[in-house]
Amino acid sequence: MLNRRDFLKSAAVAAAGTGALPGFIGHAMATTTKARHHVVIVGGGYGGATAAKYLRMWGNGAVDVTLIERNTTFVSCPISNLVIGGVKRIEDITISYDNLKSKWGVKLITDEATAIDVDKKTVTTAKHGTIAWDRLVLSPGIDLLPGRIGGLEGKEDRIPHAWKAGPQTVLLRKQLEAMPDGGVFAMHIPRAPYRCPPGPYERACLVANYLREAKPKSKVLVLDANGEIQSKKALFTQAFERYGALLEYVPNSALQSVDADTLTAELEFDSIKADVLNVIPPMRAGNIAATTGLPLINDAWVDVDWLTLEAKGMPGVHVLGDALFPAPAMPKSGHMANQHAKVAAAAILNLFEGLPPNPTPVVMNTCYSFVDARNVIHVASVHQFDSAKKQPMPVAGAGGVSAMANDLEGKAALAWARNIWADMLA
Amino acid sequence: MKLNIAIAAFGIAGLVGAAHAQDPNLARNLAATCANCHGTNGKSLGGMESLAGEPKEKLLQKLADYRSGDKPATIMHQIVVGYTDEQLDLITTWFAAQK
């Protein structure tokens, strides 16, 4: 069980050390006699890390926050395709959680959350026992379902997905570097909805960009289970055309099975032998959300109340990010998870104060995709809460895509990354 | 925290005369939708414009120019039209008040 007095003490010392939270210590001393609220967050990605920081920042340190995250550092999925394409290094997308601890007084537990008990208001961890919460935030991202493709289960070291940034990203890059000139890089895109709609197409471009320079006799084969490109279609079509015979896009190519020994991909009517095989399997909400009785739509995604991000019928359990069944035209993106987190943080603080949640939340999204090492295309949208439909709706006429790929947005994409990483973790 | 909320609510009511029931932190919440690109509380780390402490009229003029097309943009002309005038007023008031 988390000891709140120890937690408070360390948080206060941390705040005093940096001077980052003026007024925090006074608050802590003034409120030690009454019960402090405690929020436990599971998952330190774009959603969970943002929620942790904003609960501490907007709550002026008056709410205790514990973040349970299995990894010791944050590794960003956005920009990770640049690592696969050899433009960036894994170190460039890896960020410490130290500021959340030292600057914001978040209690960080490196562990795996294994179960939640909504009645007892606890979360169980693998190594740190059971932790009590007043409100729980689940930001578990996605878990992959390799078992849905024959022969894939347990073969991710041979057939990487690289759809969670980290060792898988490095592995896929190494396989590409080892591939002979004239080799085939085949990748598979699962049926929508999946994490990061434009991500697979960006990856295809960046692999082609690398091969064009390093191994020009090679080929990128994009096997898409969907009938068409799922995001920025016209712009990605143009980008694919610029790679000519180096890149082939094949829609309606649902993968039936793989042979990990021969790196063969079996489609309904075709069999493809690859030199590097990158299969993004079907996916659903992260296991902690999918297996603990949360309300799921299509047995995959969590149904939430959009004013508080609480799971339907589960007051006190807030769910963020890719794990959600999205509102109309709302993408599964890191940017959107960060926006979910702010709506949830504001609602949680209101509810602790006995106030209703903000009745008019707004979220917006920006997704930048590299089509080569410098040039980028975007898609953007703004979503206003519709009180009749009880969910955010995209604003008609707002948002849109780039006129064309351009290097100005290449700089903007990297600035976006720098600023959103700081918005979560600095 | 109650005191801060009260101050924020008073500040908003005083500045835009919005007396009807709205969230006491509406301006803060709306401004936070900009932070992904423009930095927490509008303090950019670079590559995007900082919004913190910028005069409200200057920010509103820029937004109006994005909307009209007078100021060329890659993306802001598409984002600005997603917000109401009242929301942009709240957002720019909030950023102008940041140190």
Question: Can you give a write-up of this model?
Answer:
The complex is a heterodimer of chains A (426) and B (99). By secondary structure, chain A is an alpha/beta fold. Chain A has two domains: 4-143 and 284-359, FAD/NAD(P)-binding domain (3-Layer(bba) Sandwich); 150-282, 3-Layer(bba) Sandwich (FAD/NAD(P)-binding domain), CATH 3.50.50.60. Chain A has helices spanning 4-18, 24-31, 46-58, 80-84, 98-102, 167-178, 199-214, 233-242, 287-290, 334-352, 407-425, and strands spanning 37-42, 63-69, 73-75, 94-96, 107-110, 113-117, 122-125, 130-132, 135-138, 142-144, 184-189, 219-224, 247-250, 255-259, 264-267, 271-273, 276-279, 283-285, 296-297, 301-302, 304-305, 310-311, 317-319, 362-370, 376-386, 391-394, 400-401. In chain A, the strands form nine sheets. Chain A has a five-stranded parallel β-sheet. In chain A, helix 3 (46-58) crosses helix 11. The model of chain A is unreliable at 1-32 (pLDDT under 50). Chain B has 99 residues and is an all-alpha fold. Chain B has one domain: Cytochrome c-like domain (Cytochrome Bc1 Complex, Chain D, domain 2, Orthogonal Bundle). The two termini of chain B are 20 Å apart. The A-B interface holds A 27, 53-54, 57-60, 62, 335, 338-339, 342-343, 346, 349-350, 353, 355, 357-364, 366, 378, 380-384, 395, 397-400, 402, 406, 408-409, 411-412, 414-416, 418-420, 422-423, 426 and B 1-2, 4-5, 22-26, 28-30, 32-33, 35-40, 44-48, 74-75, 78-79, 81-83, 87.
